[in-house]
Amino acid sequence: MAMGNLPRRDWACTNTGSKDPRFTDTHDRHRERSQSHHPETTKHSKFVEIIAEVCGAWDQIASIIPDVYICNWPSNEAAVKQHINYRVRMTVKNCQSTPTMDVMTSPEAQQQLDWVHQHLYISGADKAANTPTFFCKTLARGEALARMNSDDFSLAISDNNVPETPERIVKQLLGDPILQEFPPQKPDLPYLMGIYKAHKNKMRWLMNADGCVFSEIIVCLTAILNGIQEALQNVADDFYARAKFFGGKTNACWILGSTQEFAINLPDKITTIYIGDITKCYEAIPLEGDQGLTTAMTHLVNIAFAHQNHLQKDLFLIQKKNGDFEAKWKPLRHSSVKATRMDPTKVIEMNNFIIRHTYVRLGNRVWRQVRGIPMGFSCSPLWCNLYLFYFEYMDDLVSMNNPMILRFLDPNQIESEGNPFWIYPLRFLAMQNEMDNPFISTDGSLVNLAAHFLSLQIQIIRVDGTFLTTKYDKGRSLPFKASMYIHRDSNRPVMNSSKVILGQAFTLFYLINTAGGIVLEIDNLVECFVEKGFHQYASRRLILRSLDRITLTSPLTPMQPVLEILFDLWREPAKRPPQLDDSANSS
65, 193, 336, 452: which could join 208 in a potential S-S bond, CB 3.0 to 4.6 Å? Predict the structure, then answer.
């Protein structure tokens, strides 16, 4: 099939297949493919058919038997059907002669699956990982090649002006002393992986580094950079204390791990909000040069070690019993068989090695990323976070009247109240305004009363600085129906469903500062899970019991008012789920 010539909209779709008849063939073909991907759904449908048949027969029997025999049938109907549900499931489960059909391995299903995988690239949608997208492979290959031919990548060429192969590049890497200290289990290069951004009709390209030649050293480097980040946070805290003592101004150089942490650190009053989203960050940060990633990381590593060495501490890389690595700052005399002392020179060498050898393969060719942080390494978010911290730290040094630091900042950006993002190198980065309705006040300063930061919406409601925080869900504004959670009857494991529900509910206490707002979001959360096959009564009971037993640390809103409102709101008991006793519940 010459699918590459088809319009893009026919092959970049979400939730449904293309309307092109060459893709759908027939309705039956589409239905068979859907069933092939969900064997557990097919098996579940058999149970549903059997139970419906038995319940239908019982309804007919109940309609012809005198009321004396079945007293008050409407009130007992639910209990009888619960019992039927339990007995049918137990009978089918214990019947050894019940035939089982493996839909995935049947010839018909295998043929359909082979056709799908031959022509379509399937992945989760951007901003909605549980929503599958189907992308024409011919078009995907063309987009991938265009990405590799951009200015961000350079084709690896040998001395003989011949394109390098993945095998030759891996052989060269294995000969490097840095990599010999972290021998890889799989000598392979990262490969290019795309995620379709349906709301922007383009691909987001990642570097899939799982199980590659860099896997082992990346794990260690990620642990080390976490330790560096911890030390720099201490530097920022000390700096903030000194700045406050001398009357200087500083942003405290916050390094935040989550939106909840950001919400907890919000002041009691807010008069204006500056929020921007760096849209060109990973792909735009330069790797070399005065304002490159290697330069920034070298400065930050030296700052972190100098601060901790002043406290008579050094960084040790420790391997835990489960095989994971962590980095901790311990006294200089600390010694352990499983702890490796790290010095700044070693950390800088590891950083530079990975940054300068960001290879990615596409087919039998190899490219090296020459601009931008590679998206796909576990240490990539730390690189980005620390790179931005570098400029925030330099800005704070300026606030302490250190004019020598001005040379580190972007000379094209002028410090002003109307440009709160001036400290970042905006000739590399692109700052997207996330402020709802900013305006210039009479004194010329920028004023904004509402904005959103990741999953948090902030709105100033009074002149004295009183503000409200609510949940901001970008998935609700997507131009397609996003599947936020997996279905209860999906063939994927749902044993963690209670943890998912409670995790979503507890997060609200760190995002919303009003009890009414939390109650509204929890009620919407329950309805969302009900749409996915979970029972309303069971979901509500799980949330109420957990809120009554668990104590949260420093929430924005106390739990007790929310619990009281939910008890009052859900006072009318919902129809209980089809469970007659504990044995039925366990089934």
Answer: 193
pLDDT > 70? residue 422: no
- pTM for the model stands at 0.65
Q: Report the C-alpha gap between 569 and 158 in whole angstroms.
A: 70
Query: What are the residues whose beta carbons fall under 8 Å from the beta carbon of 66, sequence distance 6 or more?
Result: none
Q: Give the phi and the psi of residue 417 in degrees, each rounded to 5.
A: -65, -25
Q: Cα separations (Å) of 466 from 271, 437, 449, 519, 556?
A: 8, 18, 11, 21, 14
Quick check: 348 pLDDT over 90?
yes
Alpha carbon distance 389, 380 (integer Å): 14
- Quick: pLDDT tens for 312-331: 888 888 888 887 888 888 88
Longest alpha-carbon distance in the chain: 97
Task: Assess contact for 348 and 306: CB atoms under 8 A.
Answer: no
Amino acid found at 459: Q
> Which 8-state DSSP code applies to residue 163?
B
Cα Rg of the chain, angstroms = 29
Give the residue from 232, 274, 223 showing the smallest Cα distance to 253: 232
> What are the φ and ψ backbone dihedral angles of 498, each rounded to 5 degrees?
-65, -40
Token code pair at residue 220: 């260690």
Residues 6+ apart with CB under 8 A from 125: 14, 131, 132, 133, 195, 196, 197, 198, 480, 482
- The beta strand positions in 413-527, using DSSP E, are 430-433, 439-440, 446-447, 450-453, 456-460, 467-471
Amino acid at 235: V
Count of CA atoms in the C-beta half-sphere (13 A) of 150: 15
Q: How far is CA 210 from CA 130, 147, 213, 216, 563, in A?
A: 21, 21, 9, 10, 43
